[in-house]
Amino acid sequence: MSQTTMNNFQFAPLRSLDDFILESARFQIPTFSDFEKWGNRVVKNLLYYQTNYFILSAIELIIIGLIQPMKIVLGAVAIAAVFYAVLMIYGPNKSASTQQLQSVNKYAVLGLLLGIAYIFLYMFDAVLLVAFAVLLPISSIFIHSSLRLRNLKNKLTTTVETIGIKHSPMGQLLEALGLMPDTFQ
Known about the structure:
This protein is an all-alpha fold. About 75% of the residues lie in helices and about 0% in strands. It has a domain of about 90 residues. InterPro entries: Prenylated_rab_accept_PRA1 (IPR004895).
């Protein structure tokens, strides 16, 4: 990020609960046949309600973590072990010692992989809980941003964001993913 981008980097304000989900909020099922209009609605709601979405995600993760804290930790460890084993064995930057270990001790490496696979399958319910803990906030954000109709303030704020006058975390993420609306790039 350049210095000028860092100087303009701002967090979006927290929108009121009334505007986010209560009385003044208007919801409507999107037109599924018009993906461009639906995607535009989602992107603009992501930009406008980004702080609310961050807090919603944090609350959902905390609730799931408080219900099953040990399973969350064990599931995360199992997932990390699988990723580490795969990167160690098949990663692009294998060290010389890893290559030598694989060539000399093929059965030890196979045993290690089988052991990690067994642990992963043994803790599969914990792995699924971690997947649920990650996917629940993503899906709730997508559902809200798909259903929430935009108001005039939302339209003005997201137009300023997409033009590039102001930069926010969600704006940077959407720009990096190439999901900013084409009309403003």
